[in-house]
Structures are given as structure tokens and as C-alpha cells.
Amino acid sequence: MPFKEDPDGRLLLPVVLAAYVLYGFDANVVNVAIPDLQRRLGAGPAALELVVGGYVFTYAAGVVTGGRLGDLFGHRRLFLAGVTGFAAASLLCGLAQGPVGLVAARMAQGLTAAAMVPQILALVTASFTDAERSRALAWYGVAGAVSGIGGQVLGGLLLDADVFGLGWRAVFLATAAAGVAVVAVAARVLPRAERRPAAGLELDVPGAAGISGGLGLALLPLVIGRETGWPLWGWLLLAAAVPTLAAAVRWERSVARGGGQPLVDPALFRAATFATGLAVNAAFMASFSSCLFVLSLLLQAGLGLGPLAAGLAFAPMGLLAIGSSFLGRRLVARLGPAVLLAGCAVTALSFLIMAVALHTHPAGLSPAWLVVGIAGIGAGNGLILPSLVGAPLADVPRERSGVAAGVLTTAQQFASVIGVAVLGAVFFARLGTHPDRGAHIRAAESVFWLGLALVVVMTALVARLAWLDPARRRGRPTAAPSAFVEL
Questions:
Q1: Which of 33, 150, 247, 291 could form a disulfide with 168 if both were Cys (CB 3.0 to 4.6 A apart)?
Q2: How far is residue 479's CA from residue 274's CA, in Å, rounded to a whole number?
Q3: What CA dihedral angle connects 52, 69, 87 and 138, to 10 degrees?
Q4: 68, 89 in Cβ contact below 8 A?
């Protein structure tokens, strides 16, 4: 029986969130596949770093342009093109015959994800009322948790099962098959009649080149600098990124002053909720991404767990994130921003538990202590993440929703890369040249103290965001279009 149209829009959210899960799954699954890639594909350290980081690099460099293209040509069209390209790139990953081919396919995955992911938030923003949007963003947070845990656990299961002897290839081939299914359903359920873009809207090509180029110059050395020994060319690229981005910002301002259509409208940043919301998201992603990176290394290389056991250690985090998201739905209506601050407190306490456990058990640490801390981070994140995603977009005009979503995801990914690069450098510096179990524990401890500091900064920013909440300024209980509406 052919799949029917979806006139009420009830299937729109599950379909677009399925694509978000695919993106997050492929961002996380490579972490557990690294040992198998090294063994079967013969990938060296630099190639492995590019397999992981190349995906993030092309995604973060292209996502603002991807959001703008959605505003110009339609979010439905860009979403379908992005998912189709993502499925094709996943297939190329699964068929790669060497490290170079796999790196190229992974970078293609990131680029197609840059076309796909901004349309998800844009479709949610444009397709739902304010009250419906808050619930949709809660599910968006759940999808993020599911994708993270799915990448760790399902990836471990596929690798342990060694389906048809495919090893690491199975994870990419599964993604390709799922992507084809998402395209088939999305083509029927996404609304064909989209809001037309404003008259005169056009692509700012110099702005796109300047912003994407500047981000690329900064991201590439951050992604592979550690594995390549921080060569001179990496520092030169970082240095070149500063004037490139500065020139791009000046160009955007001049286009806006002349009445043109800049890729990133500087007026977006004049809204305090947007600017503060971006800062909160950046602090969140820097702490969370570096935490996952270090924990993956500690569990496998330090404590000797296999990929499946290491993946299962993250399962409580995902389950509690889902549960706390739905608990927050009831609490936010009564308590407003206090729930976000409570989530920050839970996350900070979890970082503290892990840092203290690592400090007091420098050689005989039980993985159970880490599982408790990981689970606590999931519970805190479930209270935090949905509103953090909605907060920067609360006051954004719908015709700018695509590019605003692109700026948000760029800030998230850039902060994630910087967090992993900086805190990862601290981890490896503390690890030394002959790491044993104790060295891994001591190195991880340093990272978690720094992660705790980032969570404290995030808490201060959340407090400011609560102060800026438009419903609070109007002197009445929080309600739509506040960033802190009922989830």
C-alpha cells in the first residue's frame, strides 16, 4: 500500500528528526569504530583523525551557507537533497577501499549534512505554532540524546556482531539504507507548499566564501593539529583565519548598511537572546564534546573495555536524558528558567563526581563511578538542551530561520571542535609518552576539572538568558514565545 500524504503534519516531526538522528549517529559511531578501522583499513593516526574530524570540518564550514540556501530555495527541497546526498556519501564510506577514499567520503558526508541539518530546525520553526514548537524542540533534544547513545551502543553492537564480516563498513551501510528510507517517506509527508522567500532574497556569495573559508582555515588545524604534531602550516592557517573572518564580518556589515542581503545579518546579533543563547550553546558543546571524547579514550584505552562495553557505559546517559526531557516538560510550565538552572547544577555535580572519583582512585578506578557521572550528565542535559536550542531562535523572523539555525549549529560545532582540541591537548599532555591505566585516569581528571569550569560559565550565561526572557520582562508567567516555554 503506497504511503499517504500527511495533511495534518503529524509525521513531519518524526521524519525530520529521523534525519537528525542519522547525522548524530554518524558523528558518534566512528569513535567506537576507530580500533577496527586501524586494524582492517590500515589507517594511521592522521587518517583516523581526519575520518573523525573531516566530517565535523566540512559540516561546520558549510552549515551557515546550507541554512541560507534553504531560505532561498525552500527548506523542503534542501532537506531532501541533503538527505539524499548524505545517504550516497554514507554508501561511499561503506565501500571505501583505503583511508584516502574514506576521508573523502566522510568530508562529503559532512557537506551534505550541512545542507540537511539547518532545514530541520527551520522546518520546525516555520511549520509549528509557538506552543507546538516548544514541544517539537523537546523531541529535538530527545533525538540528540538518542543519536549520541545510538552511535555508541548500536555501533558497538554492529562491530561486535561483525555482520557478514563487514566490520566497520556495516555502520556506514546501515546509515545509507536508513537515509534512503527517510528520503522515501519525507518526499511524501513534507509540505509541498512552503512559505515563499521574501522578494529580493539572494545568496551573498562573497560572504559565504569568506565565512566558510575563514571557518575552514581555523577548523582544519584544530581538527588534525594534535595528530600531526602542530606543524608550522597549522599555525599559519590559524593566523590566516583571523583576518579572513574579520574581512567577512566587515563585508557583511557593509552589505547590510547598503540595504543588501548579507549571508549572516548582523542584526541577528543585536538581539541579546540570540547572542547569549549562542554563547550558552557554545559552552555546553565545548564541555560535553570534550567529556565524551576523553571518556571514550579512558574507557577503552585506559580501563580496557571493548567497544560494546564502552558503548553500553553511555546507555544510562541517553536514557536519563530522554526521561529528564519529559520531566522538564511538566516542570518548566511551573518553574520557568529555574529548571534550566537546575539542569546546570545537575551537570556540574556530575562533572564534580567524576573529577573527585578520578582524583581519589588514581590506579584502581571502577567504571561504575564513571557510569554514575555519565548518567548524571545525561539527566542534566535533558533539562538543558531543548530550551537551549530554542532560546537563540525565539525572536528570529521566520524568513531568517534557516540562516539563524545555520549560525546556531556552526557555533555548536565550532565550540565542539575547540573543546575537543584544547581539552584533548590537555589530556594528551598529561598522558605522557608511556601511558598506563593510572596515567589515563590522571589525564582525564584534569579534563573534568576544566569541564566543570565550563559548566559554571554556562550556568552564569543561563542566568543571564533567564533575565533576558521576554515573558519575564513583560511581568507575567513564562509563555510563548519565550525561550522557556513548556516543553
A1: 33
A2: 18
A3: 80
A4: no
pLDDT, tens only, 144-175: 767 776 777 787 778 778 778 888 898 899 99
Q: Which residues contact 199 (CB under 8 A, 6 or more apart)?
A: none
Which of residues 183 and 214 earns the better pLDDT score? 183
Say yes or no to pLDDT of 34 above 60. Answer: yes
Of residues 180, 186, 185, the one with CA closest to residue 88: 180
The cell for 66 is 546550507
Sequential DSSP letters for 373-426: HHHHHHHHHHHHHHHHHHGGGTT--GGGHHHHHHHHHHHHHHHHHHHHHHHHHH
Cα(392)–Cα(394) distance, integer angstroms: 6
- Residue with cell string 541533503: 82
User: pLDDT per residue over 429-465, tens digit each?
Assistant: 888 777 788 888 888 899 999 999 999 998 888 888 7
All 3 cell numbers of residue 28?
558518534
Report how far residue 292's alpha carbon sits from residue 135's, in angstroms, rounded to the nearest whole number.
Answer: 27
Query: What is the residue type of 366?
Result: S
**pLDDT exceeds 50 at position 2:** no
Domain boundaries defined on the chain: 1-203, 269-470+481-487
Element (H, E) at 72: helix 45-73
Q: What is the rounded distance in angstroms from the CA atom of residue 47 to the CA atom of residue 402?
A: 33
Does 1-203 match 269-470+481-487 in CATH topology?
yes
Phi, psi (degrees; rounded to nearest 5) at 482: -60, 155
Neighbours of 344 (CB within 10 A): 25
Residue-averaged pLDDT of the chain: 79
Task: Provide the percentage of residues in the chain whose pLDDT is more than 90.
Answer: 16
- Cα–Cα distances (Å) from 297 to 284, 354, 375, in that order, read 20, 15, 18
Instruction: Looking at the structure, give the CATH architecture of the domain made up of residues 269-470+481-487.
Output: Up-down Bundle (1.20)
Q: What is the DSSP string of 323-383?
A: HHHHHHHHHHHHHTTHHHHHHHHHHHHHHHHHHHHHHH-TTT--HHHHHHHHHHHHHHHHH
pLDDT-based confidence at 479, cuts 50/70/90?
A: very low
How many whole angstroms separate alpha carbon 139 and alpha carbon 376?
A: 20
Q: Is 79 within 8 Å of 119 (Cβ atoms)?
A: yes
